[in-house]
Amino acid sequence: MLKPEMFVSVNQPLDLSSVGEYPILSEVLLHWRCVGDGRPPQRIDPLNLPPKALPFLMLVDLEGTTDAVIRLAGTAACDIHGRELKGTSVHDFFGERDARLVLNDLHAVAESERPTLARRSYVSINGKPWSYIRLLLPLRPDGGAVTRILKALEPSRFVAVAA
Predict the structure, then answer these.
(1) Could you tell me if 133 and 154 are in contact, meaning their C-beta atoms sit under 8 angstroms apart?
(2) Which of 17, 56, 84, 88 shows the smallest number of beta carbons within 10 Å?
(3) Which long-range contacts (CB under 8 A, 24 or more apart) does 81-84 make?
(4) What does the alpha-carbon distance between residue 94 and residue 82 come to, in Å, rounded to a whole number?
(5) DSSP state of 116
(6) Radius of gyration of the chain (CA)
(7) Which residues pair with 120 in a beta bridge?
(8) Which residues of 30-69 are buried (b: 16+ CB within 10 A; e: fewer)?
(9) Does the pLDDT of residue 138 top 60, yes or no?
(10) Considering the entire predicted model, what is its pTM?
(11) How open is the CA angle 94-6-78, to the nearest 5 degrees?
(12) What is the DSSP letter of 146?
C-alpha cells in the first residue's frame, strides 16, 4: 500500500476562466456568484446546486492558521474512505506535506475571497492514488471573515490513478 509521504502530490492551478470545461463545477460557480452578488456568500443551499455535484461536495471550516476540519462531506468522499469524514482534520486526512499544501490553498482562498480552480493528485489516507479537478469557494458563515470553504469536485474528473 502506498503511503501519502511516498507520493509527491501535485496541485496545478488552472485559470478560473477554463471552468466551462467542467460542467458541474461551472454550475456550482455560477450559483455561488449569484448568491454572493460579487462577494463570498454566507452559505450555499445544496438544493440549488446540480444534484450530480452533491456527492462531490465538502464544507471545510478553517480553524485559525494551523488547521481545517471537514464540516460536511458528500457521499463520494465518505464511500471512498470507508467512513464518515465529518470532524476530520486535514492533518488526519493527508500526509504532513500534503496537509500543508491543502491548508495553504484553503487560506489563499480565504484571504483573497476568490474562488480557485486546480487539478490535484495525491495519495489518500487509505493508500490509494487519486486525481481530480477541484473548485474552492469562500464562504462567510457569520457574515464577517471567510472561515469556511466549499470544495467541489468535477465528478467526471475524479479518478483513481494506477499506482
Answers:
(1) yes
(2) 17
(3) 81/124, 81/125, 81/126, 82/126
(4) 15
(5) E
(6) 15
(7) 11, 132
(8) ebbeebbeeebbeebebeebbeebbbbbbbbbbeeeeebb
(9) yes
(10) 0.92
(11) 35
(12) -
